[in-house]
Amino acid sequence: MNEWYRQIIEGAPEAIMLADRQGVIRLWNDGAAALFGYPPDEAIGQSLDLIIPEPMRERHWQGYRRVMATGETVYGTKLLAVPALHRDGHRISVEFSIVMVRDAGGALTGVATIMRDVTGRWQKEKALKERLAALEAAAGP
C-alpha cells in the first residue's frame, strides 16, 4: 500500500507538498516542481516563503502560526484561492486544500497541501467582471 501512496503522490499532476510546523518544505512532488519551477532538491528544506509573494507573507505566517498553535483550520474542507510565486518571479493563482498531518500521538506535525494552478480561469473571470462593470457603467442608472 505504501508503494501506491508514493506513486500517487509523486505522479500526481497537482502540486502536493508538506511543510513542517516551522513552515519548512519537507515534501515536494513533480506536480509542485511543474507548478512552481523548483525541482524537489531546491525546494525541500526551504521556507514556504519560496512560493509566497512578499506582500502576502505576513498574513500567511499569522494564519500558519495560528493553525500550528490551535491545530484547527477552516480550510480542511474548503478550497483556498491565493496568489503564489513561480521561480521566475511571475505570479500565478492557485487553489488548494490542506490536510493536517499528525504524529501517532495526535500532535500536529505540519500541513500537506494539494494545489492546482487556476491562473487562466482567474484571468478570464477578471476580464468578464471588468467587461460587465463597463457595460453597466455605459448603461447608466
The CATH class is identified as Alpha Beta
The CATH topology: Beta-Lactamase
What is the CATH architecture descriptor?
Answer: 2-Layer Sandwich
Structure class: alpha+beta
What would the average pLDDT be, to the nearest integer? 91
Global shape = globular
Number of domains: 1
Q: What percent of residues adopt helix (DSSP H or I)?
A: 25-40%
Q: How many strands appear in the DSSP assignment? A: 5
Distance between the termini: 63 Å
> Uncertain regions: pLDDT < 50 for 5+ in a row?
none
The number of helices is: 5
The fraction of residues in strands falls at: 25-35%
Q: CATH homologous superfamily - what is it?
A: PAS domain
**Global Rg:** 18 Å
H/E element sequence:
HEEHHHEEEH
Question: How do the strands of the widest beta sheet line up side by side?
Answer: 2-1-5-4-3
> What's the main sheet like?
5 strands, antiparallel
Describe the structure.
The protein is α+β, with helices and mostly antiparallel strands. It has one domain: PAS domain (Beta-Lactamase, 2-Layer Sandwich). Helices cover 40% and strands 27% of the residues. It contains 5 helices and 5 strands. The chain has a 5-stranded antiparallel sheet with strand order 2-1-5-4-3. The longest helix has 21 residues, at 119-139. It is globular and about 60 Å long. The model has no long low-confidence stretch (mean pLDDT 91).
In short:
The chain has 141 residues and is α+β, with helices and mostly antiparallel strands. The protein contains 5 helices and 5 strands.
